[in-house]
Write a structure and sequence with these properties.
The protein is of the alpha/beta class. It contains 6 helices and 9 strands, in the order βαβββαβαβαβαββα. Strands 2-1-6-5-7 form a 5-stranded parallel β-sheet. A two-stranded antiparallel sheet has the order 3-4. It has a two-stranded antiparallel sheet with strand order 8-9. α2 runs parallel beside α4 and α3 crosses α5. The protein is elongated, with a radius of gyration of 22 Å. The structure holds adenine. The site of adenine has 12 residues, from β5. Its EC number is 2.1.1.228. Keywords: Cytoplasm, Methyltransferase, S-adenosyl-L-methionine, Transferase, tRNA processing. InterPro entries: Alpha/beta_knot_MTases, tRNA_m1G_MeTrfase_C_sf, tRNA_m1G_MeTrfase_TrmD, tRNA_m1G_MTases_N, tRNA_MeTrfase_TRMD/TRM10. It is found in: Cytoplasm.
Length: 229
């Protein structure tokens, strides 16, 4: 899978060189290319923003550098990519979306800063591929970089081969609509806290039943919004 990222802070994405995704890049499973938006400016100050038409607080990212950056990325891409613009004004990012995006051959993340990107950039991007504005949650970050990082990790780990044991992807929070069950490892007793005896019983049916109950109980307590009415 190919992932391009456009940002005025490409250094944010240096961490993609470590851990699981770093390994996946080394193995050629993920082709991640990070681009500095300022490379597509042509003035001495490498300007990427300007004041908003109609007035208001903050600055808006200018369309011209974005147009050039998207042109450069799509010039050597075979298929039409899906453009993901992280935005608090976007649709909510979910595990289902991560699963769907992990099937795609080419994603382009456009990271906005300031009050956002000139709206015409989204219209132009729609001529080059599908466009999605996606929010990580109901809170505001300083820009799209951290949100893009989170989405790249959520999507990248679902690309076949990236996580060594695919079974570990199945029994996770959100994969079956519930939060995951609690996990324990050795020792069975630690500082007076004991592992629930059912997990030591060797009774696989009883263990599966207990885990399911725990999932439902936790979900009811912490995320009742996930349960059907
Ligand atoms: N940019 C700023 N806030 C954001 C959020 N909550 N989700 C995605 N992108 C953002």
């Amino acid at each position: 899978m190919r992932i391009d990222v456009v940002s005025i802070f490409p250094a944010f994405f240096d961490v993609l060189e470590v851990s699981l995704l770093g390994k996946a890049r080394g193995a050629g499973l993920l082709d991640i290319r990070v681009h500095d938006l300022r490379e597509h400016t042509h003035d001495r100050h490498r300007t990427v923003d300007d004041t908003p038409y109609g007035g208001g607080a903050g600055m808006v990212m200018k369309p011209e550098p974005w147009g050039e950056a998207l042109d450069a990325i799509t010039a050597d891409a075979g298929e039409r990519p899906v453009f993901v613009f992280p935005s608090p004004a976007g649709e909510r990012f979910t595990q289902a979306q991560a699963r769907e995006m992990a099937q795609l051959p080419h994603l382009v993340f456009g990271c906005g800063r300031y009050e956002g990107i000139d709206e015409r950039v989204f219209s132009y991007a729609a001529t080059l591929g599908d466009v999605r504005l996606v929010s990580l949650g109901d809170y505001v970050l300083n820009g799209g970089e951290v949100a893009a990082m989170a989405m790249i990790e959520a999507i990248g780990r679902l690309v076949p081969g990236v996580v060594g044991n695919p079974a570990s992807l199945v029994e996770e929070s959100h994969e079956d609509g519930l939060l995951e069950y609690p996990s324990y490892t050795k020792p069975s007793s630690w500082r007076g806290y004991d592992v629930p005896p059912v997990l030591l019983s060797g009774n696989h049916g009883a263990i599966a039943g207990w885990r399911r109950e725990q999932q439902i109980e936790r979900t009811r307590e912490r995320r009742p919004d996930l349960l059907p009415d």
